[in-house]
Structures are given as C-alpha cells and as structure tokens.
Amino acid sequence: MKDFSGAVFSPDVIELMTAALRASVASLPEPVSSTHVTLLAESILRAAKAGERDVAVLQRLALLELQLAPRS
Questions:
Q1: How many angstroms from the chain centroid is the CA of residue 68?
Q2: Ordered mean pLDDT values, 10 residues apiece, the chain (72 residues)
Q3: What is the DSSP string of 50-68?
Q4: Torsion angles phi and psi, residue 31, rounded to 5
Q5: Which residues of 34-56 are buried (b: 16+ CB within 10 A; e: fewer)?
Q6: What is the rounded distance in angstroms from the CA atom of residue 45 to the CA atom of residue 62?
Q7: pLDDT for res 69
Q8: Domain count, the chain
Q9: What pLDDT does 16 receive?
Q10: In the prediction, which pLDDT does 1 show?
C-alpha cells in the first residue's frame, strides 16, 4: 500500500470511506482479490485526502481507477 502516513481523517470521513470501499467491493464479481481491494482502498484514500466526501463519487473513482490499472 502506498504511504498515507500524513493523512488525517475524522471519524465521519472514515465512515464515508468505509462505505465507499464496501460498495466498491460488493459491485465486483466474485472472487475479489486482495490486490483489487488494496487498489480500491488506495484510490478512496487519495480522493478523500484531496477533499472528496461523496460516497458515490469515491466509489466511482475507485472503480474507474481499478479499470485503468495495469494488469499483472
């Protein structure tokens, strides 16, 4: 996981990020790999750190970034 050590989030924002991550993971076909979960979480953290607070937008950004991620 990338370094987000400088990021500070309030409990409310953590709840929003958690909801966005859960919704993102739930929208993926099974089985969901831990790599996908990590990529989604990093995207949500990045967007929240930049100030995004809309759960739907956080989810959409994470899923779009996952689609664009290079395949290994």
A1: 14
A2: 78 97 96 95 95 97 92 65
A3: TT---HHHHHHHHHHHHHH
A4: -80, 145
A5: eebeebbbbbbbbbbeeebeebe
A6: 9
A7: 81
A8: 1
A9: 97
A10: 57
What CA–CA distance (Å, rounded) separates 64 from 57?
Answer: 10
pTM: 0.89
Task: Tell me whether residue 5 is in a domain.
Answer: no
- One DSSP character per residue, 9-54 reads --HHHHHHHHHHHHHHHHTSPSSPPHHHHHHHHHHHHHHHHTT---
For residue 38, tell me if it sits in a domain: yes
Which residue range forms the structural domain that includes residue 49? Answer: 11-68
Q: What does the pLDDT read at residue 72? A: 58
Per the domain annotation, does 33 fall within a domain? Answer: yes
* Residue 50 in tokens: 């930049």
Structure token digits, residue 6: 């400088």
pLDDT of res. 56: 97
